[in-house]
Design goal:
- By secondary structure, the protein is an alpha/beta fold.
- It has two domains: about 15-115, Transcription Regulator spoIIAA; about 145-390, no CATH class.
- It has helices at about 55-60, 80-95, 105-115, 130-165, 175-185, 190-210, 220-255, 260-265, 270-310, 315-325, 325-355, 360-390, and strands at about 15-20, 25-30, 35-45, 65-75, 95-100.
- Strands 1-2-3-4-5 form a five-stranded mixed β-sheet, with helices on one face.
- Helix 6 (about 190-210) runs antiparallel to helix 7 (about 220-255), helix 7 (about 220-255) packs across helix 10 (about 315-325) and helix 11 (about 325-355) packs antiparallel against helix 12.
- The chain is elongated and about 100 Å long.
Length: about 400
């Protein structure tokens, strides 16, 4: 036996030995194409353990099978497991069959658990980014692969609504009222600020062009119709996507990590009924109301700009606003708000239910929920605008 950790070895039939104080590693060529590793003594981290590279070099030269003999093995800890994991990985790289029958049952069990979990690839830490075309191609592939899952989840939600219509859906009304409070009244401050600023921007942009023909009074028409019919619903949907959609994904993702959703399934409770349905109903009810509120806040901003900057009287602005607005504009805005709310809830709950089992996966689910929600809102806005135009609504 040779002391220390040698850096080289020979593939001759004579046995190879290595090890430090208290442990022994021997490599024997028992027959053509077969090696046997003998492990004996104490294998713990407080010792100078041999490297698995010693065994990896011994695999060269037509070795097809590797066996272990641990009959003389004494105390061991994770140092031995690290050594054996390196040996098994080397066998996989060299296409060598590693027979673990000679190892104690506890070591085989721990190695099986170690290799059962795939190696995590953390984004932004040495991973290959590829060029722009590669990233776009991968994104397109991910979208195509995710389409069936989105349709399947949509089908589950549809069935859940059917169960709700027949009184068979199981969820707590207190949960839905809590979600209504979260997505409705608590969203008023941010909706108020954004809507006021957007209304102010619309008024200034309109006035800049209308003053060329001396028609600043039509600022009221532009702001009123724009906010009530289009911009109010769109801005509210985007705000809710960033505020509530991400929260839904994070909540459901955390429940996925804690295996709470699996517990619902074990108890025979549909997670879609109990968790997803209240959130979708809350957004479908509250986003139209927030849209209506956003429209009035935007019109108030236009009023402030018109009265203070462009010398339009309060009475003139009020009368022009009433003349421009029709009931159909409110219905269009409310219908769009309801659809946008459903889109945001769908995206947030989908990404939350698809979340992996790690803290990193929860963050990715929240980010993906916002992106998916805004994308669905944009698509829905385009389609509904074209449909309403064709129907002359």
């Amino acid at each position: 036996m040779t002391e220390g950790n040698p850096r080289g070895m020979t593939t001759a039939p004579e046995p190879f030995a290595a090890g430090g104080a208290g442990q022994k590693l021997e490599i024997h060529r028992v027959e053509e194409g077969c090696l046997r590793i003998v492990l004996a003594g104490r294998w713990c981290l407080d010792q100078a353990l041999p490297s698995h590279e010693v065994v990896e070099r011994a695999l060269e030269g037509g070795v097809r099978r590797l066996a272990f003999d641990a009959t003389g093995l004494g105390a061991w800890d994770s140092g031995l497991l690290t050594f054996l994991a390196g040996v098994i990985k080397a066998c996989n790289r060299c296409s060598v069959d590693a027979d673990q029958d000679g190892l104690p049952e506890g070591i085989r069990h721990l190695l099986a658990m170690a290799f059962a979990v795939p190696e995590q690839k953390v984004a932004g830490r040495g991973g290959e980014n590829g060029n722009l075309f590669v990233r776009v191609g991968k994104a397109a592939q991910d979208f195509v692969r995710g389409a069936p899952a989105m349709l399947r989840f949509l089908g589950e939600i549809t069935l859940s609504f059917l169960r709700l219509a027949t009184g068979r859906a199981r969820f707590r009304m207190s949960d839905m009222w809590l979600e209504i409070e979260q997505v409705g009244p608590r969203a008023l401050p941010i909706v108020s600020v954004i809507s006021f600023l957007v209304g102010l921007i619309l008024a200034y942009l309109g006035a800049d062009q209308l003053k060329l023909v001396g028609a600043q009074i039509f600022i009221a028409d532009l702001v009123a119709i724009g906010m009530v019919r289009e911009v109010g619903a769109l801005m509210t949907g985007i705000i809710i996507a960033g505020r509530t959609g991400a929260a839904f994904a994070a909540q459901l993702g955390t429940m996925q990590v804690n295996e709470e959703i699996d517990a619902f399934k074990t108890l025979g409770i549909s997670p879609v009924d109990f968790l997803v349905l209240p959130r979708i109903l809350a957004l479908m009810l509250m986003v139209p109301l927030l849209t209506l509120y956003s429209g009035f806040v935007g019109m108030f901003a236009g009023l402030v700009v018109s009265v203070t900057i462009f010398d339009i009287s309060l009475f003139e602005y009020y009368n022009e606003t009433l003349r421009a607005l029709e009931l159909k504009h409110f219905w269009v805005g409310l219908s769009k708000g309801s659809v946008y709310g459903a889109m945001v809830a769908f995206a947030g709950c989908l990404r939350g239910m698809q979340c992996g089992r790690s803290a990193e996966a929860v963050g990715e689910a929240a980010t993906s929920a916002v992106v998916t929600g805004i994308l669905l809102i944009t698509i829905a806005a385009s389609v509904m605008t074209i449909v309403y135009y064709q129907l002359d609504i």
